[in-house]
Amino acid sequence: MSRLTERFAERMAAKSSALVTYLVAGDPTPEVTVPAMHALARAGSDVIELGIPFSDPEAEGADIQAGCERALMHKVRLLDVLDMVVAFRKQDARTAVVLMGYLNSVEAMGQQRFADAAAEAGVDGVILVNLPPEEADELRQALASRGVDLIFLLAPTTTDERAQHILARASGFVYYVSLKGPTGSANLDVEGVRKRLDQLRTMTALPLAVGFGIRDGVTARAVAGFADGVVVGSALVRRMGELAAEPAAIPAAAAAFAAELRAAMDAA
Amino acid sequence: MSREEVMSREQTQQSNLEAAAGMVSFADYNFPDERGHFGRFGGRFVAETLTHALDDLDRVYRTLKADPAFQRRIDRDLAEFVGRPSPLYLAERMTRELGGAKIYLKREDLNHTGAHKVNNTIGQALLAQHMGKRRIIAETGAGQHGVASATVAARLGMECVVYMGAEDVERQSLNVYRMKLLGARVVPVQSGSRTLKDALNEAMRDWVTNVDDTHYIIGTVAGPHPYPALVRDFQAVIGRETREQCLVAEGRLPDVLVACVGGGSNALGLFHPFIRDAGVRMVGVEAGGDGLATGRHAAPLCAGVPGVLHGNRTYLMEDEDGQIISTHSISAGLDYPGVGPEHAFLKDLGRAEYVAVTDDEALRAFHHLTRTEGIMPALETSHAIAWVMEHAPKMDSEQIIVVNLSGRGDKDILTVARHDGIEL
Ligand SMILES: Cc1ncc(COP(=O)(O)O)c(C=O)c1O
Fold first, then answer.
1. For A128, which residue in chain B has the nearest alpha carbon?
2. Chain-centre distance of CA B388, in angstroms?
3. Residue A77: alpha-carbon gap to chain centroid
4. CA distances from B334 to A15, B109, B143, B168 (A)
5. Is ipTM over 0.90?
6. Across B137-159, average pLDDT
7. DSSP readout, A87-115?
C-alpha cells in the first residue's frame, strides 16, 4: 500500500479525516521548509503538499502568489525542492508528501527525469494544476512506473461525464476544488460540497479530499464531517508570510495552526 | 527522456504525419485539431474549473461559425461600426525613398478605436451576448485591446473590467483614461513583472471566480483552445480583404507579408488566408528590445524554447528551470514572453519566418513613416515597418510587400517624446 493510501485509510478507519497542509517550498526562506514540514507532521498533518514555486501561478490567489514570490527571491529550483523532500525523508518515513505546481516546471526538467527524481526523493504524489487528464498520459505513466500517483482535481463545474473520465485515470486521492475561484477564496458553500461529494462517492472508491476556502478550525471541522481529507493552504501560507521577518518562529506557528485544525477535525 | 528528446521525437512524428497528409505543399493546411493542437503546440492547459466554460465556448463558436445570420451580423458591425474594409494603401513616397519593392500598407489603424484589436472584440462580444453573459473581462498591454473591449461593452451595455500590468498603466496612460471614459474599470496588476503576462494571470483568476456570468475576451491568438483558433478567425478578415484588394490593384498576390508579433493576432489575421499559397512569403517581426544578445527583449520565436503557459504549449522565454523571465520592449503590446501556438507551428513547419527588430530600429521606423507618408504608426507596428525599411531596398521594383499597419501611434506619443528627450 502506498503512503498516501495508508494515511487516508488510517484516518478513515478512525472515523476521522486526513489533514493535508500546503506550503510553498522555500517560503519565506529555504532553511525554514524542512523544519516546518516536520512541525506540521508532528502536529497531525498526514499529507504535506509542497508547492513548487512558479513565476506565473495563474490558479493561485494573493497569499500563495506572495509565497511563490518570496521563495523565488531565493531562486529556489525544482532540484532544491526535491532535495528538501530527501532531507525530510531522513527523519520521516510516514507522512505522505505531494508536490504541487505547474506543468512548465516539470517539462523544463523532462518528464521521465522528473518522475525518477521524485520517486527517489520519496515523493508520493504530484498535482499539476494546469495539466488536465487529456494531456497527461505520458507523465501519468512515467510516474506510475515509479510508484508515484498523479493526482487530478475535480471542480464544481466538472460534469458527471467528465468526472467519470477523470476518475478512471485518478490514483492516490481525488482533490475536489470546493469553489469557483483561485486558491484562498472565501465563499465556501459547505452544503453544496457535501452533496457533490455524496455523488462522487458513487463513482469512485478513492479518498476524496476537499480544498480551497478552508481557512480555520470552523471550516475544517465542517468539511471533515463528510470529506476523507481536508486541505489547508492559503491560510497557512499567509501565517508564514506574516512571520517572514522572523523565520525561526515559523515551525512553531505552523504546528500550532495545524494542531488547531486537527483538534477541530477530530471533534467533527 | 529529456524535454528536448520528447520534443524532437514529437517533431519527427509530426513531420511524418504531414508527409503522409501531403502537407508539404501546405495546400491542405487545416489546423488546429479537435482539441486545439497545432502539431505539438496549442492544446488546453488550464485549471479544471475552466474546462467547462471552454467546452461551452467551443461548442457555441462552432455552431455560430456555421450560422449565416451570425456571420451577417458580424459583417454588418465590421462595416458600420468598425468602418471596414480597411484600405490597402500604396505608400508611394516610402516606396520611392527606399527604392525597391512596392510597399502597401493594410490600414488597420483606420479602424474604429485605432487598431486591429476591435475585429476580435466585435466577434467575441457577440459570442458573449449569445451565451447570455452580462460581464466582460479582458487583459491588455498597450491598452488597444482594453479600449476595443471597453468599446464593445459600452455598445452592448455590458459590464467591463480590464486587467493591465501596473507598469503598462503608467506607460499607456492615455489608453487607461480612454477605457475609463468608456465605462470600464481598469485594474492595475502589481504581481510579477507588472506587465501583460501578469494581467493575463489576473484575468484568468477573475474568470475562474466569475465563470458563470463572465466572458473573458482574450486579445490575441494565445490562451487555451478554442481561443487561438477563434481569435484568428475573427482577425482573418484582414488577410481576406488584403487578398481581394491586391488582386484588384495588382492582378496578383503579394510576394511578402509583414507584421509585428506580440501574441500574434494581427500577423495571423494577415497570414492565415495566404498559408496555402506557398509562393507568398510571411515574415513576423518580434520585439528585439535592446538586442537579442542582451537577453532584454520579447522575442520567444527567435530566442525561446517550447513550454506551457497561459493555457497552451508554445515558444516561451524561460530560464532553465522553466520560470518565465521578464521581457523588455519599448512597445507594451509586444512585451510578452509567449506567442500564439499557431505561430510556433508555422515556424517549425518553415512556412513563416520570424525575426526581431530592436527598440531603436522601431523608433526610427516610427519617425520615418510619420514623415514620409503622414501616417503615425503604433510602436508595435513600427517593428514591422523597420523590417520593410531594411529589406525593401534589396528587393526589385516588380515585387510587392504588404505590411499590416496594425494600429495608430497616438497612444505612444508620450513614450516617443520621452525617448527623444522632450517634456510635454
Ligand atoms: C497596434 C498593435 N499592434 C500589435 C499588437 C500586438 O498584438 P498581436 O501580436 O496580437 O497583434 C498590439 C497589442 O497591443 C497593438 O496594439
1. B47
2. 19
3. 19
4. 56, 17, 12, 11
5. yes
6. 97
7. HHHTT-SSSEEEEEE-HHHHHHH-HHHHH
pTM for the model stands at 0.95
> Does residue B387 sit within a domain?
yes
Q: Quick check: is B26 in a domain?
A: no
Active site residue B139: yes
CATH of the domain at B357: 3.40.50.1100
pLDDT computed for residue B127 by the predictor? 97
CB B14 within 8 A of CB B40: yes
Window 9-38 of B: residues touching A by CB (8 A cutoff) are 35
Q: What is the pLDDT of residue B2?
A: 54
Same domain? B296 vs B321:
yes
Q: How far apart are CA A93 and CA A114, in angstroms?
A: 21
Q: Please determine, for residue A261, whether its predicted confidence score (pLDDT) is greater than 70.
A: yes
Task: Write down the pLDDT at residue B22.
Answer: 47
Cβ atoms of A220 and A6 within 8 Å: the answer is no
- Residue A256 is part of a domain; what is its CATH number? 3.20.20.70
Q: What is the pLDDT of residue A268?
A: 77
Give B49 to chain A, closest Cα distance, Å: 5
Closest-CA residue, ligand 1 atom 12, reads B333
> Which among B140, B225, A60, B208 has a CA at the least distance from the CA of A24?
A60
Tell me: do B190 and B72 sit in the same domain: yes
Given the residues B86, B329, B331, B406, the one annotated as active site: B406
B1 pLDDT band (50/70/90 cuts)?
very low
Owner of C-alpha cell 476544488:
A177
